[in-house]
Amino acid sequence: MVLPDLSIGGVSMVVLDICNLINEEIFNIHLLLLSNNTEILNIRQLKKNISINYIDYEFTKDYSILGYFKFIFFSETEKKNILKFNHAVKSIIPDIIHFHCNPCELYLGHSLASKNKKRLLITDHLVRLNNVDYSKLATLALTYLYRYLYKPYNVISVSQAVNDCIKTFRISNKSKSLFLVNNSVDTDSFRPLKIKESKELKVIYVSRIIGHKGHKELIDSWSILKYKGSKKLLIVGPDELKGSLKKQVSDLGLDETVDFLGSVSDIKKLLQDSTIAVFPSHKEGLPVALLEKMSMALPIVASDIPELTNIIIDGENGLVFKKGDSLDLAKKIDTLLFDADLRTRLGNSARETVVKKFSKNSEIQEITRIYHLLYNLK
Known about the structure:
CATH architecture of the largest domain: 3-Layer(aba) Sandwich
Helix content: 25-40%
Distance between the termini: 21 Å
């Protein structure tokens, strides 16, 4: 499997689960990382028989649409990266090359597909396009760029929303296969324990601190809550905004009620001690962190993006607020803070949802089926 790194995040967790749970008597898995960041291995285990190889990949620093085109089609760096990648792959001799990368890195597989007839597969973890975030011209340019990059790949989408995006914008190649394999959670491991609820109500958000994850409006909403009882907001995950969120908290005078915990090794303990979970993200695939919270029977407040509303049904197994709307988010958090019975009902329903639809065994079985299918292609 090829991925940018093993940093702390949902993609790395998905990859580690596949490595740890798939039948090692049938599949010999190697990880090829484009950088040497393996931070997640500090908090999650990887089977000792899984080899990890690195290449000194030079990432683009310009993620604009024009930057994408320059990097992929006109950059000397791109040629160097291909040589490094091909050399690494040659030493492994894989039957299937399974990518978990950003689209701009998918050009790496093109030369292998044409020369060696390698079976290429990408798992797409994110809704890449919509008709809201970009202008019509930008959307059109990205559509054609993605079609080119995805052309030699069979594709796995991690959620119905990702699958719908790929079909709507016709990103994947018609001659290749498109599979839907929902991300999942180990519901036996992430199981709620019956403990007495603390007088201090804790609201938790587990995510990398980056722009599109919605941390800013979460902090804004926290500052205008009507609930004045004892409460704490727990922000869990590595900070990629260089402290700007902590400054926002200080500027709003919220230091006493907001804790930044960074990356944690025992997320289950934190979830067990929490009262409510929030997920204010602007863009997703199917976040494993969300499924873990639901499996722990936590009541969820989630933004109204399709990636989340395909799972969270407002008033049934969680509450939904308008994306980016701090006032609406504060209203929904207040609703749960004031109503213990509602928290219990929505939390129990959330767990029922993941137990029925997002079991880890089903995901691994489907990945196994896809590997067999691709291996047996002529």
